[in-house]
Amino acid sequence: MDLGIAGKWALVCGASKGLGLGCAQALVQEGVNVLIVARGAEHLAASAAKLIADYEHSTRASVLFCAQDITTQAGRAAVFAVRSSFDIVVTNAGGPPPGDFREWDREAWIKAVDANMLTPIELIKATVDGMAQRGFGRIVNITSSSVKAPIDALGLSNGARSGLTGFVAGVARSGLAAKGVTINNLLPGVFDTDRIKTMLATNAQKTGQSVEALADARRQNIPAKRFGTPQEFGAICAFLCSQQAGYINGQNVLADGGAYPGTH
Q1: Helix (H) / strand (E) containing 254
Q2: Long-range contacts made by residues 54-59, C-beta under 8 angstroms, separation at least 24?
Q3: Helix axes 119-134, 155-171, angle to 10 degrees
Q4: d(Cα 233, Cα 118) in Å, to the nearest integer?
Q5: What is the mean predicted confidence (pLDDT) over 57-72?
Q6: Could you tell me the pLDDT band of residue 4, with boundaries at 50, 70 and 90?
Q7: Is 10 helix (H, G, I), strand (E, B) or coil?
Q8: Which residue from 14, 46, 10, 6 is spatially nearest to 142, judged by alpha carbons?
Q9: What is the C-alpha separation between 63 and 52, in angstroms, rounded?
Q10: For residue 99, is it left (φ>0), alpha (ψ between -120 and 50) or beta?
């Protein structure tokens, strides 16, 4: 299927690896020009080089990269100095650490809200009016399945991402869709990324169980009996950015292999 977005420009955050890189890869495959952003300059440069080597000649898509912390005002200013106009924005920032809510002080909460609620809002604010003027725009916020089924140990993420979810529910229905701009949230369950590997390693140290035993137990709780891949996550993101997805707006799209047991 031709998604009809070749030649568009996309800003993809947290794109040096994992789900963000999966999204960037899927968009470049469709001929979308991308500016990828992450904090780690070495990993980011390597990922940009691989995208260029794999796809630039076949799709004629341009790949730019900017090593900045998108959760800071200075980082966002540096990114928009590279390019200020985008047709597609994929917001993504690493989730806050797990823990006991009794141990989180105000600084921990502010940091979580800054990264996982206020940063996406700032990126939306900076780009959405230009999208509306041009008659096309797609914003996809990578959040978490915990928005639908909160996880006790991830209270910082539950709170910050739920705030973003509420904001998007309102702004996506504010008249932007009539101008060709959609805003959706993409909710990953358990994917084979560095984050899940780190969490499994931490739990292994606490429990004395092996990482593989813990991973297998997680897989058994997923109807698909496996973890997702960044590539299939990216494909979902690319479709939400497509011309064909213009009637999907203000939604929380869950990609979790069927783990969520509810009906809505």
Answers
A1: strand 252-255
A2: 54/25, 55/25, 55/28, 55/29, 56/28, 59/6, 59/28, 59/29, 59/30, 59/31
A3: 20
A4: 24
A5: 95
A6: very high
A7: strand
A8: 14
A9: 6
A10: left
- Residue 90 φ/ψ, nearest 5 degrees: -115, 110
CA dist list (Å): 7 to 3, 31, 36, 61, 68: 11, 6, 16, 7, 24
State the average pLDDT over residues 199-205: 88
Q: Is the pTM of this model over 0.85?
A: yes
| Tokens describing residue 55 | 């796809």
Q: Which residue has tokens 């390019």?
A: 83
Q: Nearest CA to 28 among 50, 51, 44? A: 51
Q: How far apart (Å, rounded) are the C-alpha atoms in residues 144 and 93?
A: 11
Task: Provide the 10 A C-beta neighbour count for residue 58.
Answer: 10
CA atoms within 13 A on the CB side of 130: 14
Which of 172, 189, 142, 192 lies closest to 251 in space, CA to CA? Answer: 172
- The alpha helices in the chain, defined as continuous H runs, are 18-29, 41-51, 57-59, 73-82, 106-113, 119-134, 155-171, 194-207, 211-220, 230-240
Which pLDDT score, from 0 to 100, does residue 98 have? 84
Burial 146-161 (b: 16+ CB within 10 A, else e): bbbbeeeebbbbbbbb
The SS3 call for residue 43 is: helix
Structure tokens at 194: 């560095």
For residue 195, give the amino acid letter. R
